[in-house]
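Repro:
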Amino acid sequence: MINKNKAAQSRQLVFSILLSFILLSCEESGTVGAGFINESEIVADTIMVSELPIKSVDPYLGKLIYSATGAFNDPILGEINAMALFKPSIIQGDIGDLPMDTKALLRLNIDIENIYGRQDREARFKVLRVADFWRGSAFKRSDEVSVVESDGGPIEQQVGEFTLADFDTTGFAELELSGNWKSDFIRFYNNDDANRDSVYRHEDFGLAIVPEDDANEIIYARISTSRLLLIDPADEDTTTNIMLDWATDIEITGGTAPANNVVLSNLYDQYLQFNFTDIAQNLDNNNFVRAELVLTANENALQNSLTENEERFETPPFRIQLGPSNDIAYDLGFNTISSTASYDEGKYRFDITELFNASIFADTDITEVYLYAGQNSGYLSFSSFFDVTADAANAPKIIIFNLESEE
């Protein structure tokens, strides 16, 4: 961490790379993570980043730990509408003889402590039938899935309903499911054909948790720990079914980033892609100790954009990862080989020392380095960073720590 500026002189470095940089050389004392070095001999050069190379990708949103569902108009991120898709399993080899009056209960688990948006906990939700085929393992944000519209036909739209008041302190609620979906599920369950499981997977599209029209909050369902309970009314015998599949379908429109800012969300609407090659190759590798990329969060804009009764989830972990990648969406969401930024007093610091050393000493390609908001188990979160047009104290920068030359 840099603690104190002593003196500075300006000079230019010219690099033929995607990013252009202005080098401001200044001697500073600070901790660089090398305890055997006399820190009074460390010189820190600050390279001001003059361009943020913004990219976008289509993220995978299936089978995350939490599935977002609800609606909230976030002044910065935009108007969010989300529904949680899920599909109960039918146990292979378990062929029953359930009567049509079997009671179907969805034992739904949510994170009762974390609600995005309005905090009055009066939100109401519906459980509806899904009209299109989908698979959680391949589900992306761009995939279009609709719910069955109620038109008076043979397929009923609404299967169940609930409010946040229905949940206990551990985040569980039991709601009854009914209508055509229940009777169709029982028919699949009682089917003794050899291809029953395949037919069920491809002909029943599951259910969706959808907010009512007046919703102004988003909740997080943990589908993997939710269950479908089938209760035979004659002997009250209960069959418990786990969930076969789940995903989150999200649409976001609008949103206004603060002036001189860039917004990075864990839905990857935007991520940053850097080329650090020329910086690394122009370092004095005899004296080079450490390198940090520093981004400054606009904390005031984030805090002041919500009303007193509204909350966001905490900001996600911000990470940096070496490319290139054949599937950037997958790697940003699920690759664990990444470096997480430290955060202190509004500053995110990314340690890029190993990247530079790999380029200098092992000729590693560092033309594609991704900076992004981590998936964060499905919680929707983001941060707003000052961009290159901000003042020098808040603008993006790279700090190079060197041993002071004896010249």
